[in-house]
């Protein structure tokens, strides 16, 4: 039976998401992880061994330069997405970047520009856009004219200034980590809003601990979105 050669991925970073996506890649026929990169060589070696990858690198630049790798999956903290994507694009590698695509609009626009200039594939790893039910709702005329979207996603995350989710220098905060899902769903179904009203609260580190708001669209359409439950520091009372 004819089989296309294995498509080889390089994994940038070694955290929970990197491990989860790496495991999904090796479980897919025709896909494999060929290399792992991290600033911590020991962690790169450990994940490479777990995924059956031949190579482990102590830098993202060396990972991107590996000639055996076809595409780079970027699973670093948000603020490092541009740096890794830039190295991958320069090496001619396709890039699948964990959401959010970048920590700032300027970084995202630069990534898109570099990819277009190099003729290299670049995509944000927003799984929600590939969910069969969401794709059906977005494309099937039987659902009619969507007038209102209500979306909420959050979880309890006690404040820990040492954790990346609470660190401003790592792109922490509820909106970039959780809010991309409800806001992204609203954008997928209703497009870009013409106005918005947002409220929320800040963590002691200055990042957004929670947020909610209304997105406004032409013709009275609207979306109610929120990223609740961040920063819960109190224990739940006993029943």
From TrEMBL:
What would be one Pfam family of this protein?
A: GFO_IDH_MocA
Per UniProt, the keywords (alphabetical) are: Oxidoreductase
Can you name one GO molecular function term for this protein? nucleotide binding
Carries keyword Oxidoreductase? yes
All copies of the Gfo/Idh/MocA-like oxidoreductase N-terminal domain together span 8-124
Show the InterPro entries listed in the entry.
Gfo/Idh/MocA-like_OxRdtase_N (IPR000683), Gfo/Idh/MocA_domain (IPR050984), GFO_IDH_MocA-like_dom (IPR055170), NAD(P)-bd_dom_sf (IPR036291)
Q: Does the keyword Oxidoreductase apply?
A: yes
Q: Where is the GFO/IDH/MocA-like oxidoreductase domain?
A: 137-227
Task: Look up the domain of life of the source.
Answer: Bacteria
Looking up PANTHER family in the UniProt record yields: OXIDOREDUCTASES, TRANS-1,2-DIHYDROBENZENE-1,2-DIOL DEHYDROGENASE
Q: What family is this?
A: Belongs to the Gfo/Idh/MocA family.
What is the designated name of this protein? Gfo/Idh/MocA family oxidoreductase
- What organism, scientifically named, is this protein from? Nonomuraea diastatica
